Amino acid sequence: MQARPWHSSYPIGMPHEAPIEPGLTLPELMQRSFERFPEQVAFTCGEAGLRYRELAQHSLAFAAYLQGLGLAPGDRIALMLPNSLVYPVALVAALRAGLVVVSVNPLYTARELAYQLQDSGARAIVTTEAVLPLLAPLRAELPLAHVVFANADELQPAGAHWPLARDAEPSDGAVPFGRALALGEGRPFAAPRIATTDVAFLQYTGGTTGVAKGAALSQANMVASTVQMLTWLDSIFPPGNCSCVTPLPLYHIYPINVALMLFSRGGTNRLLANARDISTVLAEFRRATFSILIGVNTLFNGLLASGGLRREDFAGTGTVIGAGATIQQAVAERWKAATGVPIREGYGLTECSPCVAFNVLGGADWTGSIGVPMPSTDVRLIDEQGREVPVGERGELCIKGPQVFSGYWQRPEDSARAFTADGWFRTGDVVTMDARGFLYVVDRLKDMILVSGFNVYPNEIEAVVALMPSVLESACIGIPDDRSGEVPHLFVVPRDETLTAAQVEAHCRANLTAYKVPRRVSFVDALPKSAVGKILRKELRTLQPAA
């Protein structure tokens, strides 16, 4: 890559190009760690843990079980699990078998789950026992052929021992996870030939607008993102001697990227099943020292509000990484005062596997910047006509790099719109860049709402509300919120004057994951529209709700 403004801001010795090994796949990367760090602890969840040799053994057995079901490379397998020791076993097994991992939020409603399984064409799912009643009525309409479920003990073991119910009985055709492992141990496994161009993950996202689409992330994309971040964070990822507290769910691309970094260095990933339980997060800090903490602004804010943070808990911490949503200045400053460790903010997108930019380690504690582009990453800012804007001017951030996906799953038109004519990925984010190459997010081009780091799409909320007979029409926008960054605010034109906000909220709660439910519902006489009838969401911000 030719010299770019941000290269002068790189730490001394940082290469402009990440040392990405040609032809390397995720299974090969994992196999190297199995061989190099067999006795290191790979994952913990509470007091229970898995060493790399144990993870290698269990994942091989589960991969053999999946092959025995007739699943072939390229088939999709959904993982609908909370953070637990089941997750990495299922994830590594799927990748070793050449399957495509479809990450699913375990809190999804039946409608959301059915859509993602249908769209991805998933043939198998690994989930929890609690999800089985939700899944059962959907199976007749889905391509889903195989269901494996984990029980409560496997998800949250009480002690250091990880119990596996190897003799448990199937439930309505669903096979217990422990039994699947036992069956796999008696079967041969044939390692498939996997190419770097093969899809490794289908990560569902709406991009900048619209219904959720599966971003097809290849083996090469995921390896590139892993190596890029390792190159940047090399000093705090010593081989075999690093650990990360991971409160964020592994179905999100950000913690998956961190998990792969840890894996490649023989590190320990300390999973937390429920980050909403602040006392559990604080207890994990005190269980043992840790190298890294990852989180989002709302988590950091919640931990600060608890009053339970102690500087001594962060004595061995090299960095705290904040991404997924903008880190607020007040939160960053209060965090540094409470812990002594600054939050280093980064920026990424699902379509970029996800890493794009990161702040310099050892730099200023908080600048409002999302950092500079990562090694092997090129960016440019363009105006509405596609012309590159001068330094300091606002423009849409566009990206090129080996971590950038090739398109959305079975959506050629959406894929084409996601790129410029000359192949740059359009993020939909308006940013500025200073003379040193530091990027600053200004706004989003479209109407996506960012709730605690999760994308919420107005179209989906409006489609759900439209199912209510008492609603004539509705429109949703994001409004600022101290706790979540943004929350959905729904404007409703009622068909029936007896309709209440509580009824609308109850309907949404039954059909949407909790973070998508509007936090405010306002009734209006009409919605602002253009001459062709398009709702003008920007004008909703100045609309006065009816009394």
Beginning-to-end CA distance, first to last residue: 59 Å
How would you write the strand order of the largest sheet?
2-1-11-10-12-13-14-15-16
Structural class: alpha/beta
State the helical fraction.
25-40%
Average pLDDT rating: 92
Q: Do you know the CATH architecture of the domain at 26-36 and 48-194? A: 3-Layer(aba) Sandwich
The CATH class of the domain at 26-36 and 48-194, by name, is: Alpha Beta
CATH fold descriptor of the domain at 26-36 and 48-194: Rossmann fold
The total beta strand count reads: 25
Q: What radius of gyration results from the CA coordinates?
A: 23 Å
- Annotation field: number of helices: 16
Low-confidence stretches: none
List keywords for this structure.
547 residues; alpha/beta; Luciferase, domain 3; GMP Synthetase, Chain A, domain 3; nine-stranded mixed sheet; seven-stranded mixed sheet; 16 helices; 23% strand
Summarize the structure.
With 547 residues, the protein is of the alpha/beta class.
Describe the overall structure:
- The longest helix has 17 residues.
- The chain starts with 25 loop residues before the first helix and ends in a 7-residue tail after the last helix.
- 28% of the residues lie in helices and 23% in strands.
- With 547 residues, the protein is of the alpha/beta class.
- The strands form 5 sheets. Strands 2-1-11-10-12-13-14-15-16 form a 9-stranded mixed β-sheet.
